[in-house]
Amino acid sequence: MCKDEITFDKLLQAITYLTEQVAELKELVSELQPAQSEKHVLVGIDDACRIIQKAKPTVYALVRKGLLPSYKKGKQLYFYEDELLTWIENGRRNTSEQNYEQMLTAMQKGIRHKPKSGFNL
């Protein structure tokens, strides 16, 4: 099927073949990916403190400010482990090279050019 030239008469067969191939690829990819449910584990405040290595008052302050992803049911705070790890990863500091690039980009955006005088009619 792959080596044959696709004509209008063989279009339905080609689409069927491609659909089957895509389904097989989806199965293979899903088998290779780690299970998401293993990382998406609900933890309490004590485990959250251990994961992000912060004291309880600091965690409460971060939640109150809306900086730390959390869930509240009644008086209990809950966290998902994967969300806490993502929060930590997003807070990484840039290297000096990345800071230089950001500074250069910001400076280039702020440059204003003198408008041309006169009208071009």
Explain what the structure shows.
The chain is mostly helical. It folds into two domains: 1-33; 37-90, Arc Repressor Mutant, subunit A. It is 56% helix and 8% strand. It contains six helices and three strands. It has helices at 11-32, 36-39, 45-52, 56-64, 81-90, 96-110; strands at residues 42-43, 71-73, 76-80. A three-stranded antiparallel sheet has the order 1-3-2. The radius of gyration is 27 Å and the shape is flat. The N and C termini lie far apart (62 Å). The mean pLDDT is 82.
SSE layout and pairing:
Layout: H1 11-32, H2 36-39, E1 42-43, H3 45-52, H4 56-64, E2 71-73, E3 76-80, H5 81-90, H6 96-110
Antiparallel strand pairs: 1-3, 2-3
Text of the CATH class of the largest domain: Mainly Alpha
The radius of gyration computed from the alpha-carbon positions, rounded to a whole number of angstroms, is 27 Å
- Walk across the major sheet and give the strand order: 1-3-2
Through-space gap between termini: 62 Å
Strand fraction? 5-15%
